[in-house]
Amino acid sequence: MAKQYDILFRILLLGDSGVGKTCMLRRFTDREFDTGHISTIGVDFKMKTLEIDGIKVRVQIWDTAGQERYQTITKQYYRRAQGIVFVYDITSESSFQHIVKWATDVDEYAPEKVQRILVGNKSDEEPRRRVTREEGSKLAERYGMDFFETSASTSHNIDKSFSRVTELVLQAHKRDVDNLLGSLDDYLNKAGLDESGQDKVGSIQRVCGCARIF
Amino acid sequence: AVQCDVLLDDVTESRLLGLVEAAKEHIFIYTHRRMAITADDVSLEDVIPIDLDFAVVESSPEELVLVADTRVRVSYKDESLELKLPFGSHSRRFLGEVIRAWSDERARSSGPAPTDESPVLAVPQLGLRDNLIRCELLKNEDLYIYREHFFFLGTYNVNGQTPKESLRPWLSCTPDPPDFQELDLSKEAFFFNDTPKEMEWTKAVSDALHPDAKYALQVKLVRLVGIMLLFYVKKEHAEFISDVEAESVGTGIMGRMQGNKGAVGVRFRFHNSDVCVVNCHLAAHVEEYERRNQDYKDICGRLQFRQADPARPPLTIMKHSVVFWIGDLNYRISDLDAADVKDLIGKKDFEMLHAYDQLKRQIEEEAVFVGFAEGEIDFQPTYKYDTGSDLWDTSEKCRVPAWCDRILWRGKDISQRHYRSHMTLKTSDHKPVSSLLVVGQIKRVNGDSYKKTLEEIVRNLDKMENECIPSVTLSKREFHFEEVKYMAHQARTLSIVNDGQVPCQFEFIRKPNEATYCKPWLTANPPKGFIAQASADVDLEVFVNRTTAPDLNSGKQEMEDILVLHLERGKDYFISVTGSYLPSCYGTPIRVLCRLREPIRDMPRESLRQMAEKPLDIPKELWMMVDHLFRNAIKQEDIFQQPGLRSEFAEIRDCLDTGAADSLGGNHSVAEALLLFLDALPEPVVPFAFYRQCLECCSDAVQCEKVVSALPQCHRNVFNYLAAFLRELLKNSASNRLDVTIVTIFASLLLRSPTKQDLAEKRKAREFFQHFL
């Protein structure tokens, strides 16, 4: 049987306090939903195993404190993430407006190649909606992000959005590895001209080692 | 064996590892040249026995970004090696073996009693997840594996007739459609070219198959003229059938050439089982049972199936895990005349008849069909009837009825659901026989259920893993300290309760761009710890000293901090700590104090930074203390030598900061409070900028005077005021027993070094100050 996980990624949930980050995470990993809101004061994480394109991916999803006063501290967690899920609450205009600020922070603190998606949570609360789908999707488009409206309460789009961000991270990672292998090939081609066969075998084996990740 | 890298300090060197069993297992470590092709390329470097002094622990990579090479620490007694094994199943298997050897060793030594807890905790996690999943899959096999497959076997000697009636009563007699149908439609006639009849019978069979399922005809075998084998399978199973082969043999002298006696066989692979169906027609006549036995042996020996791989030997019937044997075996009932047989049949005393059945006898004598099973026959003989009726043979020969048509099987986990004849069919002089067999040995994996089961297992494992993430609850998330005063210690207890399922290690960690885990006025005691179960208490202590007071007094800093409590391999908790600090003259610059006409605590915070009022000559707090000492303690014995009382210091500080009482307290306490005041000044009486200058001119009294006269006014005032006070004290040294040490004390407070003061500097500072006494 295949190994149960081939790769591990970190994904970070960002957004204002109360938009439902913790609920999304619980829904995704435990299939549970609590209506009561307890502010996350700190940084929590859960593991989840996904299979994407036949590759078993383990994701560590980080749930961060949304409250403003903790933001200077939570920023230090950005740099460890490969994927970011920006979350706002469709019933809260301010949480939507703050996405710009969150995105700016990410630009500043997260790794350059971090993959991002935008999520408008609480899609089940249609009567209280303050942010239209179009506004959300427009903002996502501006940032070049995929957009989902989700509901941790009904589970709508929860799996889909997390899977999507993981897929994006995986693709980006593949590109990275391909580039790396490409440059290794170049190196080998050059090195092959003046190196003895013995050493070359060693190098080629090393390349194969890298390639086996997929 | 496996290749790995050994990390030696900063150098990484390649080694080969081998796991060798010799009484005990050992890890052999070899150095090697290049690719290590022959034995000459390697040489043994070290041997590590795997016994109780051995340990292997997988180091978890700090950044769990990619699953990279596996790092393990192998230790033996005091030595340890850091190894890096290349990513892949090979390494994993090797480590698995090492761990198995290690745990066997421990199991051996610890005996049946469970070992103590610590080695259990240290059990490495290598491949644990994969093993768990495999284990769970096996345990839950029933959820995704079907084990019951129904095989419908039928044999019907049609005696060269054309189909005249529906075969449904025979072929669709089961309530549920069977998975497989293997049918023998043999006919007792020599016809070399009988194609039309085959077509007719095939159609008749197809029409009569169980209507509740769709079948695909897999094999149609017409061989040896007279033997026809049809093999149907439910459509859904068709894709799992592979390696289908068919063979036939003729038996007897004639048979080898052309005969109508012999066998056809078909074999196929279905999931994990090899199935073989043999349909035979054995030699006729009552007395020929030994020939029939011979035919059977002949068939078993000669019926062989080629394998896909021509290099492999052909498969015989007995090599199959499931064998069905059907057909007109032609064994008769002997040693009874027709009338007796018919009588027993009439009484339905089949049991008695069995004793005369040749096949039963021969099987009992192990002369034929060894290892085969046959179900209980509780139907009347299927041969010989007058065609078109249920009447026994009325022809001249008036044959004795017999169970010619039989169905036998061989293999594990096979049981019979029914074994019967079908009397309603009257086309032939034989009656058809059918048997429904349940084969339990075939494990068919249901793709969807398998996926579902696997997902469920993975989800449960994720859940378990998430539950095993260290977790705690904190007694409080926010701590507020009221009325924090200078040099007044306050503490609150933070209880950390381990509510997770694993022991946890906690530590307060640094925040970005900060040197320590918390502000200097705060400490957490202990700052790290281990909670096996239950809970741990951490004291959060607030203490403002001369270093932290200045910024808090001036309001440049608020008393607030967020502690990050990190659990190893777990989450982080934020704990906010705030305090309302009461500003104090302690730690407030002379310059500022001189402008405070009111007690410091009565002043609005902002005003401490921007005051335009005409300043006082010296800080009133300083005056209060010196005046108190001047009035009360000028003759006090051991003044400035004996320490004050802590409680009195608190009162003095409050008096100074609030301007409350007139009497400050005990002389010794006031004296010490004065020294503390000077010590806490952010800028000493002789400002840091003048320090060097003072030391350089310390031998020259005039120069010293000059330096002092250059000090900022308030500082100069304080300097002169204190010098005058000391002179007064020294005048009374007869009573207060003051000596030169007081000069040293004051000198070191008035002339503080911006860095660390050494002995020579101390001496010079005293020399400088001496000029003013």
From TrEMBL, chain A:
It is a lipid-anchor. One of its GO terms (biological process) is protein transport. One of its GO terms (molecular function) is GTP binding. It catalyses: GTP + H2O = GDP + phosphate + H(+). Its main location: membrane. Its cofactor is Mg(2+). Belongs to the small GTPase superfamily. Rab family. This is Ras-related protein Rab-15. It comes from Hippocampus comes. The lineage of its organism: Eukaryota, Metazoa, Chordata, Craniata, Vertebrata.
Automatic annotation (TrEMBL), chain B:
The keyword tRNA processing does not apply. GO terms for cellular component: cytosol; early endosome membrane; phagocytic vesicle membrane. Transmembrane segments: none annotated. CDD domains: INPP5c_INPP5B, RhoGAP_OCRL1. Gene3D superfamilies: 2.30.29.110, Endonuclease/exonuclease/phosphatase (3.60.10.10), Immunoglobulins (2.60.40.10), Rho GTPase activation protein (1.10.555.10). InterPro entries: Endo/exonu/phosph_ase_sf, Ig-like_fold, INPP5B_PH_dom, IP5, IPPc, OCRL-1_2_ASH, OCRL1/INPP5B_INPP5c, Rho_GTPase_activation_prot. Keywords: Cytoplasmic vesicle, Endosome, Hydrolase, Lipid metabolism, Membrane. GO terms for molecular function: inositol-1,4,5-trisphosphate 5-phosphatase activity; phosphatidylinositol-4,5-bisphosphate 5-phosphatase activity. Belongs to the inositol 1,4,5-trisphosphate 5-phosphatase type II family. This is phosphoinositide 5-phosphatase.
